[in-house]
Amino acid sequence: MSSQQMMDRLNGHFYKYTFAIREATTRKKSTTYNNNAFTITFDPEYSRVNFKIANHTSSSIKIIWNETYIKVQDDSSKVIHANIPYSTKNNTLQPSEIEAGSSLQDIIIPVDYIKNENGKWVERNFYPETDQSNSQNTDWIMGLLGVDVFKLYLPIQINEQTQVYTFTFYPIEMEKGAKSFKH
Asked: I need a labelling partner for 116 at 20 to 30 A (CA). Which of 29, 42, 55, 110 fits?
């Protein structure tokens, strides 16, 4: 048995989530939000949220990063996005500008889940990947189906007007396996 197989056994079962977003009081079966100004599609992973936003307006729009945050249970965290060094995670972030008719592909990482461990920067999961061979953890993880796991508060400026869009993510499916589903 390889050392990786031994580690996988110690970690128990691994879980892959399929998320959807909730808008107001309705639940969608999708991670795409669309309005007249933009379309945004999310792909949550364990320690980050990948996304692509397309600008449908005739002027640029901006993501206001300094006011963006993720809320996991009762804890809120500022975020960083692609190409921001982890060592500068608490610095002021410049807005991302998306020109008219163009799109931006980026990631969102909550800064409270980025840790320096022995001189190496590590992203920690903000929802569980494994049950660690514990049946109580298994029950708790499976109980997350349909439950709001995290919220993203994303301020977007359109024509000098900023609106905070709230996206609530909840798992609609889970796949259980013997190995990690991380890319």
From this structure: 42
